[in-house]
Design brief:
By secondary structure, the protein is mainly alpha-helical. It is 76% helix and 0% strand. The chain has 4 helices and no strands.
Length: 143
């Protein structure tokens, strides 16, 4: 969750970049946060995707996780490109480019917020429920 939150901050910051702001403050520092976010996020999410899988199915689960990474990137980029083209109106030249970039980064921030909610619902809450249920209360498989 820390990684995703770091990515949200970095992406929201990057979406505020403009011609008037300097490179270091408006691009380099937010990109540093986004890079840290990816480092903190991708490995744990990959581990979560294969945790609890039997040894016999580990390769299949790993492959499915990698396919999800690739498809998510492709579909996500497609959505951002489509969103960047919405509502440009009569803008042209640098104003159009700035509008599209800002709109795409705003949409990416929203996507990261959605990602955070999915992680909370699909990973964090179930893990907390498991910790709260005593082991003796869970049915044990018969051998």
């Amino acid at each position: 969750m820390t990684g995703i939150l770091t990515g949200i901050v970095g992406m929201a910051w990057l979406s505020r970049a403009s011609v008037e702001t300097g490179y270091v403050v408006s691009v380099a520092l937010p990109m540093l946060l986004i890079g840290i976010s990816q480092g903190l996020t991708l490995s744990p999410l990959t581990s979560a995707g294969v945790s609890g899988v039997s040894d016999a199915d580990a390769g299949i689960a790993s492959g499915a996780v990698n396919v999800a990474h690739q498809l998510g990137s492709s579909v996500g980029l497609s959505v951002l490109v489509a969103v960047a083209g919405i509502g440009a109106g009569a803008l042209t030249g640098p104003a159009l480019t700035a509008y599209r970039i800002t709109t795409a980064f705003d949409a990416a921030t929203v996507m990261l917020l959605l990602c955070l909610s999915v992680v909370l619902v699909a990973i964090v809450l179930p893990a907390q429920r498991e910790r709260l249920v005593p082991l003796s209360a869970t049915p044990q498989p018969s051998i």
